[in-house]
Specification:
CLPT1/2, Double Clp-N motif, 0% strand, Clp_N_dom_sf, repeat, Clp_R_N, 234 residues, Clp domain protein
Length: 234
C-alpha cells in the first residue's frame, strides 16, 4: 500500500488560508478537486506508458489496474480523432495560435500531425518554444527545413472535422502532463515542445533528434528561463 504524500488536512489549510469567505473556499475546493483528479489521471498514464515501454502487455496492464484488456486499451490508446482530451482551456494565447497554425499547415492533409504542430511552434517565433528550438538546432532554419522535407506533400481532401493523428493526440496529452509535472497552471508553447519531444515515435521528435534538439536540454533551458523571469519580477 502506497502512502499518499498529500494529506487532507494540508489541503484544507491551504484553501482556508487563501480564501477568507466560506463560498470562496467551496469554489476553490471544487477547482482543486478537479486538478487533483487530472493529476491522478496523468499519474496513471505515466506509469502505463512506462509499463508499455518495458514490454508489458495490455492484458497485464488491465489486470494491474483492475480492468479488462479492452477497457485498458480504450482508456489509454489514443486514436485519430478531431476531439482532444485534455481541452485547450488552459492554453495561453500563443499556444492556441500554435494549434491554429498547425491546422493551417495541415490544410492539404487528411490529419493534423506532430510535424504540423512543430511548424506552428516555429511560426510563433516570440514563444519560448521557438526560441528554444533556435538555441539548440545545429544551424539556423535546419529544423524547419528538416520538417518540411519530412512532410507528405501529396495533396489530399481535408475531412471536416479534420482529425489529429494518434501521435499528435499523444503529444498533446503529454503537453499537459509536462505542464503539470513542472507545476504550471497554464499550458504554453514550451510545454507543447516538451510534449512533442516526449512523443518519440512522432515525426516532430524524429526530426528534432536530427537537428540537435533533445528533451533534456530543452527542459533545462525552459526551466532556467522561468527562473529568470520569476527573479526579474521580485
Amino acid at each position: 500500500m502506497v502512502t499518499t504524500p498529500v494529506q487532507l488536512t494540508d489541503l484544507i489549510v491551504t484553501v482556508a488560508q487563501e480564501h477568507p469567505d466560506v463560498l470562496g473556499r467551496l469554489a476553490a475546493a471544487v477547482q482543486l478537486s478537479a486538478q487533483l483528479t487530472e493529476l491522478g489521471d496523468h499519474l496513471i498514464g505515466h506509469f502505463v506508458d512506462e509499463a508499455r515501454r518495458a514490454g508489458a502487455s495490455w492484458t497485464d496492464i488491465g489486470e494491474s489496474i483492475g480492468v479488462t484488456k479492452q477497457a485498458a486499451q480504450k482508456r489509454f490508446v489514443l486514436k485519430e480523432s478531431p476531439d482532444l482530451k485534455p481541452s485547450f482551456d488552459r492554453y495561453t494565447d500563443r499556444a492556441r495560435r500554435v494549434v491554429v497554425l498547425a491546422r493551417h499547415h495541415a490544410r492539404f492533409s487528411e490529419r493534423i500531425g506532430t510535424e504540423h504542430l512543430l511548424l506552428g511552434l516555429m511560426d510563433e517565433s516570440g514563444g519560448l518554444a521557438a526560441k528554444t528550438i533556435a538555441k539548440f538546432e545545429g544551424a539556423e532554419g535546419t529544423t524547419r527545413l528538416a520538417v518540411l522535407n519530412a512532410l507528405d506533400n501529396t495533396s489530399r481532401q481535408r475531412p471536416d472535422p479534420q482529425p489529429f493523428s494518434a501521435h499528435c493526440k499523444k503529444a498533446l496529452e503529454l503537453t499537459t502532463r509536462e505542464a503539470l509535472r513542472l507545476g504550471h497552471t497554464f499550458v504554453g508553447t514550451e510545454h507543447i515542445l516538451l510534449g512533442l519531444l516526449a512523443e518519440e515515435d512522432g515525426t516532430a521528435a524524429k526530426v528534432m533528434s536530427t537537428t540537435g534538439i533533445t528533451r533534456a536540454a530543452a527542459e533545462v533551458h525552459i526551466t532556467e528561463e522561468f527562473t529568470k523571469a520569476i527573479s526579474a519580477r521580485r
